[in-house]
Amino acid sequence: MDYNCVECGACCATFRVDFHPSDGEAQGGRVPEGLYDELNGSIARMRGTDHTPPRCRALRGCIGEQVSCLIYDERPDPCREFEAGSDACVRARRRHGLAESA
Ligand code: SF4
Ligand code: SF4
Asked: CA-based diameter of the chain, in Å?
C-alpha cells in the first residue's frame, strides 16, 4: 500500500511528540526554539501535541488534503522514525477518518 504523507498529516495531529532537550535549539540542537517546550531535564515536547485535540505547531495545511512540516529538515527524531504504513500510522489515519491507504 502507498501512503502519501503530504496528503495526510494525521500522525502530526494525533500523538505527543517528545524528544530529548539536547535536540532543541536552546541546547545547541536542531529543533527550532518557539515550537517546543522543555518539560524537564529529559523531556522536550513539540507544542500543540499535548493539546485536545492534538496538532503540532509546526504542521501546516489541512489534514487529509495537503500538509507540510514547517521544520521538516529540523524535525525531531520521533518524526524521523515514524513509519508510514505502521500500526500507529493506520491508527492516526483512522482517528481522522482517513482510509487505511492513501
Ligand atoms: S499518518 Fe501515516 S500516512 Fe499520514 S502523514 Fe503520518 S506517516 Fe504519513
Ligand atoms: S515536527 Fe513536523 S513532522 Fe513532527 S509532528 Fe510536527 S509537523 Fe509533524
From this structure: 40
